[in-house]
């Protein structure tokens, strides 16, 4: 059984339990082929779970008549809102244990309805879990615990309009429930784009990006959603906060910064004025291979510390390059892409390739990007079909979450996590993750583990490595194994003073690492803000702060 947790914007059916669209998941034969890549996986895949097989109880609360038209207790809809899309969530659904299923799902259409729902929930002790596209991979959209009498999933995807476009200031006022494709489709007639394309672009919303401080696809420059915010409107139980629309301000701490990354714990982001850009017209891309991963790291640092600002600067280690089809000879591969709305980018690409070659790279295969196929997918970096490695990587990038779900059906444990650290610590950090997290995965399962790494975002002072761990699990014990791997990874990150997350948010899964990372006085201030804005403690309990 499938259901769409975010109806507007697509006629295809979303999977209630797995990533993305139900019709894009690997079939049983493809799952078996995937399982053959990891020794020790199941002989046949676990069946696709059905909502009909779950124990979906009666709602523990009834909404008032004035709000009843906004709320549903349909079992399919409730199950689709029970969790995000982390591996931990996928395997729980496969095992028929998705966790606490919300009692009700509400879909407000404007700010007043959001405020009314919060007023009702506060008075009845109902937990409110904000929900956009449901793509959280850190336990950010589920309820854990038993301190509230009922759980309301607040789905904002009916608030999905671009309300105003200011072409003079190149900005737009956008409702927070707009999914990526819905948002971009409304900007396209104006020749403008938000230019924020996370891997979850099709299945995540503007509000979700803001609430989690999401990182986009682009490797340098403005890539975090923070960089695009002019002002926010946030509905809290204590009232509505609307900041002034300004290009910049030095007037004290920014009110927007309180809510960016707040993960729905302090209020519900309902609208935002966002800075826009012209749609790119010039694109070019290249790939460079490296026999030595350390030399590849030095090449990336040189490019990051230049003023070239590539849109894409992804370094794939040999395992990642092999998995994506970008390389088959044990080489690491650097994928470069440039784009511009104003002028050709071939010269900047050539300079970046020269830097890579000067640091031990070879090949330098190049492609030219024209209009490309970009309507809001990670192809925006200008990857050209002529470059086989770049095309292979892009295809694998878009398919990877579906393949992960296929491996989960074969009993594999697949964990992905990302971080960021300064350049001086990165080589030792990557080595420690490969060694220690790989050993922890093998110890937990008795099977050999694969640990791959790619660099997703690069800065002059540091870089964001993204790791993938894959190992055959033990039937029925996958969640505990995943927890062990997550704990081992978090310990290594903390020891190297690398952030617990660069762009996937804190949620509930990263809380232990976040509690160690944040300064104690800041935690005190955050608790005070929670007390002031959410006195009944109903907003997304368990994320960021208790």
Automatic annotation (TrEMBL):
Chain spans, region Disordered: 361-385
UniProt domain FAD-binding PCMH-type: residue ranges? 97-279
Q: Which organism is it from?
A: Streptomyces iakyrus
Pfam families, alphabetized: FAD-oxidase_C, FAD_binding_4
Name the residue ranges with Low complexity bias: 376-385
Quote the SUPFAM superfamilies the UniProt record gives: FAD-binding/transporter-associated domain-like, FAD-linked oxidases, C-terminal domain
Alphabetically sorted, this entry's keywords are: FAD, Flavoprotein, Oxidoreductase
As for family, the record states: Belongs to the FAD-binding oxidoreductase/transferase type 4 family.
Keyword Oxidoreductase, does the record have it? yes
Query: Does the entry feature the keyword Flavoprotein, yes or no?
Result: yes
Full protein name: FAD-binding oxidoreductase
